[in-house]
DNA sequence: CTGAAAGCGCTTACAG
DNA sequence: CTGAAAGCGCTTACAG
């Protein structure tokens, strides 16, 4: 049996309350002498407080949930983007003595269960649709501190951090426009009124408006953000949209797939078609030619998420609005000036 | 205030003990009538049991820890390999009503703290050195069920799942030998007496013995498993080991880096030099030419880890030895017959 | 089939 | 600066 707080107390000849105060660093309530004595005993026994007991008594678990949609029953797919965030989150939380519980969410009701069951102090929602976040009500979440990453929901129950997706779409299109392209396809998953993809799309459209060009809506190409879907899309574009000279894709994997599809159809990149990806994932610089892409700062995004969470837990004032981080266009080898018609 | 078990009990006009039995599915102790009545009330209130209270009273947390080394203070780097495992683990555990706590481990002592604090029922150790696992003692881990992935430690406190790394190294080398190569470099991180890399190395050597060829130890090239380190290694090999006609690398990222280094030095792959990677990560098929590599089945590995854990938690007999999964060589574009000396 | 009671290991006013 | 006591929300023998 590992020692309990009571064991430590009786060995030190003090009350459990005093040991509790020492462990929790309540300086004001314990003399230096007894504190040192207790600390030595704690050390010697390798005493570790029971988090369940603590959580039960203090009504605070010091657990933050990381909630990720689990479409599939068998596996959460952690995108490279998600995986990059997880590591930073864990460390940052750990430094503040919080634990991270990872939870896949298959049905909306599971959010409530996840929060309530372990009495989470906070949770980070990663990769949820805005609609799901909109639907959250106080009765679902209690007063758990919630941070939604990459969300455009304005549900006040969740703080939001995201990259400037509108600027990202705009940057990508603008660069291509500047290179002389006009027949630019937009490739990405279906989107609704709000959300990351919608924002990138609007930014993309804005770039056309900026230079006074008109965009042909038939160049909107719906495709999942996977390499396989990209391959199909590339083939499709080559076959039925031969006038396209450039493509903006909403994810690097998609862009890479499109490159392959184009190649299979006999088109060269960037000779015949220029292409811009999104995220600056590892693959962006593994392909040949290296992918021009829109980069976001994942570490910064995670760091902000943690700060928002901790501020909220400490009762500090919350920001007025969502926190939006800058993005940057990384120009590599898949973009070139439009080839003048022969 | 969310309802407690007591609230449910008094509303149903029964004792807390009975509600507890219903919630825990103890069929034998409750009549169908009262069970249904209670379940309806539970449903209506959206009652969620407090996991801390449960954990405290039952001495079982139903939490499994996922312990990952955190060298860096700021971030756990989840390799693609690790990220692939995490998703499967979470779902499989969830299906059995376990929760997953993700914890980065910077100092050995943190293992104990992690296990004890939340009274973990089990833990999966991911990516630890054998030496760290060897060092685990009963007093550190109590009777927590432990599964070490990719470990070759024979510490009986941890069950082990791993791929057949020896076979992997052997397969890779054998294929190159069959293609006529003899001057084959082995590129990978420094290794000690045991461990994944050591096994691959031994397998590599075995392949030479299999065909009665002699390996020149100067062709052992130590490099971290990153693309950057690979680039350097590629440059180094081109400059100081010009006789090398093939390379086995212990990771895909390393192999890809080496390809770049070789290219920078004016060598072609697979024209001048063949190369085999390890893992079949995404990047393996993103590069040009596509990387020949040794693939392991991550889903299977995670699934076995969970099964070992659950078996142990259910008190079922443990396997006699470590579970070893098969690997396969995926031949793609980076391997070709040795070019006959001009 | 059901309930009363003790207890899991802490924290938190409150009193001194 | 320190302690006695109640309580957090469950589970678990035990008795009936």
From TrEMBL, chains A, B:
PROSITE patterns: HTH_LACI_1, HTH_LACI_2. PANTHER family: LACI-RELATED TRANSCRIPTIONAL REPRESSOR, XYLOSE OPERON REGULATORY PROTEIN. Keywords: DNA-binding, Transcription, Transcription regulation. Pfam families: LacI, Peripla_BP_3. This is LacI family DNA-binding transcriptional regulator. The keyword Transcription applies. SMART domains: HTH_LACI (SM00354). The keyword DNA-binding applies. One of its GO terms (molecular function) is DNA binding. It comes from the Bacteria. SUPFAM superfamilies: lambda repressor-like DNA-binding domains, Periplasmic binding protein-like I. Residues 3-58 form the HTH lacI-type domain.
């Amino acid at each position: 049996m590992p020692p309990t707080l009571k064991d430590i107390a009786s060995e030190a000849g003090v009350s459990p309350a005093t040991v509790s105060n020492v462990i929790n660093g309540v300086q004001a309530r314990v003399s230096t002498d007894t504190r040192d004595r207790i600390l030595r005993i704690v050390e010697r026994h390798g005493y570790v407080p029971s988090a369940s007991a603590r959580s039960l008594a203090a009504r605070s678990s010091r657990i933050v949930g990381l909630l990720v949609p689990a479409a599939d029953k068998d596996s959460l797919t952690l995108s490279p983007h998600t995986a990059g965030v997880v590591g930073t989150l864990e460390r940052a939380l750990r430094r503040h003595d919080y634990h991270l519980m990872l939870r896949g969410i298959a049905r909306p009701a599971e959010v409530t269960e996840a929060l309530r069951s372990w009495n989470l102090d906070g949770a980070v929602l990663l990769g949820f649709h805005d609609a799901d976040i909109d639907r959250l009500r106080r009765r679902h979440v209690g007063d758990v501190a919630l941070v939604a990453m990459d969300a455009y929901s304005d549900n006040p129950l969740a703080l939001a951090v995201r990259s400037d997706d509108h600027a990202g779409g705009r940057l990508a299109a603008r660069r291509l426009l500047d290179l002389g392209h006009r027949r630019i396809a937009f490739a990405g998953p279906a989107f609704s009124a709000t959300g990351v993809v919608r924002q990138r799309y609007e930014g993309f459209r804005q770039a056309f408006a900026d230079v006074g060009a008109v965009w042909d809506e038939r160049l909107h190409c719906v495709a999942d953000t996977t390499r396989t879907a990209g391959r199909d899309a590339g083939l499709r574009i080559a076959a039925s949209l031969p006038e396209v000279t450039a493509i903006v894709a909403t994810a690097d994997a998609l862009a890479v797939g499109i490159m392959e599809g184009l190649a299979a159809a006999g088109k060269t990149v960037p000779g015949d078609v220029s292409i811009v990806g999104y995220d600056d994932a590892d693959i962006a610089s593994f392909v040949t030619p290296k992918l021009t892409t829109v980069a976001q700062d994942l570490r910064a995004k995670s760091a902000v998420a943690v700060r928002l969470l901790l501020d909220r837990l400490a009762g500090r004032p919350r920001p007025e609005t969502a926190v939006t981080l800058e993005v940057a266009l990384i120009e590599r080898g898949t973009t070139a000036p439009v080839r003048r018609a022969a």
